[in-house]
Amino acid sequence: MTHVRTYTVDEIQERIDAVPRVSLAHLPTPLDDCPNLSGELRRTISIKRDDCTGLAFGGNKVRQHEFMLADAIAAGADCVIQGSAAQSNHSRQLAAACARLGLDVYLVPKLDEKSSPVQGNYLVDHLLGATILPIDAAQSTAARKAELAEELRAQGRSPYVVGMGATRSLVLGAVAYVQTLLEIVRARPDAVPDWIFSATQGSTLAGLQLGCELLGLPTRLVGVCPMTADHEAYLSPEQIAELAQGAAQMLGVSTQITADRITTTLDYVGERYGVPSVAAIEAIRHLGAAEGILLDPVYSGKGFAGLLDYCRAGRVPEGDNVVFVHTGGLPALFSYSEELMASQT
Question: Can you tell me the distance from the alpha carbon of 305 to that of 279, in angstroms, rounded to the nearest whole number?
Answer without folding.
Answer: 6
